[in-house]
Design a protein that fits this description.
Length: 484
Amino acid sequence: MSKASFDFDLIVIGAGYGGFDAAKHASEHGLKVAIVESREMGGTCVNRGCVPSKALLAASGKVRELADSAHLSSFGIHAAPVRFERQKIADHASNLVATIRNNLTKTLERSGVKIIKGQGRIEGVQKVGVREINGIDRFLTAKDVIIASGSDPFVPPGIQTDGRTVFTSDQAIDLEWLPRWIAIIGSGYIGLEFADIYTALGCEVTMIEALDRVMPTFDLDITKLAKRKLIDSRDVDCRAGVLASKIVPGCPVKIELSDVKSRDIVDEMEVDAVLVATGRVPTTQDLNLQSLSIETNKGFIPVDENMRVLINGDKIPHLWAVGDVTGKLMLAHTAAAQGTIAVDNILGNTRSIDYRSIPAATFTHPEISSVGLSESEAKDLASKDGFELGIVRSYFKANSKALAELEADGLMKLLFRKDSGEVLGAHIYGLHAADLIQEVANSISRRQTVLELVNEVHTHPTLSEVIEMAYKQAVIQMKSNSGK
Ligand SMILES: Cc1cc2nc3c(=O)[nH]c(=O)nc-3n(C[C@H](O)[C@H](O)[C@H](O)COP(=O)(O)OP(=O)(O)OC[C@H]3O[C@@H](n4cnc5c(N)ncnc54)[C@H](O)[C@@H]3O)c2cc1C
């Protein structure tokens, strides 16, 4: 097919952050682009994820702060008992969603992207089928196709949801009511963020985690410190190493807990509500991937580092996938980065993704963040490549700004190569950890060493000096190691 005979240069399936960035970037570079979206523009992040959850965290965080009379009285401040209106907090989140969705849609329209509302699917090489909202089914051709169909909440077998008493984050972001006692299944970042919201608003939380410790995906030292504040000091009870094997919605909600190994029932609970936060699954079931014999990995689409879709390791020409559907670091900024990288490759500018420099954050109060390798990954790399791993810890309690805020509970752990000083990873818990991590992410992206970074001047007094202290300690460790 000649270029002129295609309907579009690029068709993107899915208008979440991955699809949005890809479509905008392509259109700005002169390509004729269509984006197909079956639900709301903006995908999970804008409608059911980052945006509304951060709005709820912002509002509930203020309630927590104003209700913490012990903390306030340390400053000599005595506030009246705090009152809040649940519906207005919920409205703050939904208004923000509407504003951002509107802005994003207008941006695409202004960039000249054709928005098609309907369900997209692959119909062979360079062919896309679309079932439009009005029921009309049509076929479109494009020189290149990007799949950006995202992900949906995973609900394990045995758990029934009704959207009202047993629900996922898709409904939790509506904050329709505040249960007196809520069980949260899963202690990953979504479970932790909602535990932060619910406890700030006066709910009692029980966290149920199948793995043998809560917060299993976080660094061990960070978990130890963060757990004290985020879980132990709040109205949160934890059950680790047990499976919520059966949940029946109702009033009350009935939960059956089983031993992870034997599957024997070990306990039963009755609560007012359950939030199921047990991870996410790729949205690939209606994409007709079999038309190109694409074999997924548990639903995730295999891609190379340039975002080309692979079959048995071979690249499929003109087909790309980006975002959660690829299963790599399922975050909005990963999806966006993958989207622009796919388009740059389509434009002939070879680019690949560097997952090591992509940061992740949990927006609890205080926040948790990380970038690069975990300690165990760094240890494995050290033994494989034959270098000594350096680890330093820098504490917020030695930081003037944190002390001035009376928020000195925090830690940064820095992982680096003792031979070259290259920064391999960082894990932070403390005030504004989500903002702080970016500095380290940029250093990792440039593969910089602590020897280069140690001379960078940091503003005083700021939390960024926690990072400066880590770099200084790392250099001291390198020098004492080499006997200098
Ligand atoms: C509660 C929660 C909080 C989160 N907080 C953060 C955060 O703070 N920071 C962060 O970085 N990430 C966060 N995330 C993750 C983030 O939302 C996702 O990583 C991101 O949305 C992935 O973008 P995507 O473009 O890959 O997919 P999605 O945003 O899921 O978008 C995919 C789109 O494709 C559409 N689609 C699917 N199939 C078809 C089809 N066949 N035809 C047409 N359209 C289709 C869907 O309707 C959807 O709109 C959060 C997620 C949740 C659930």
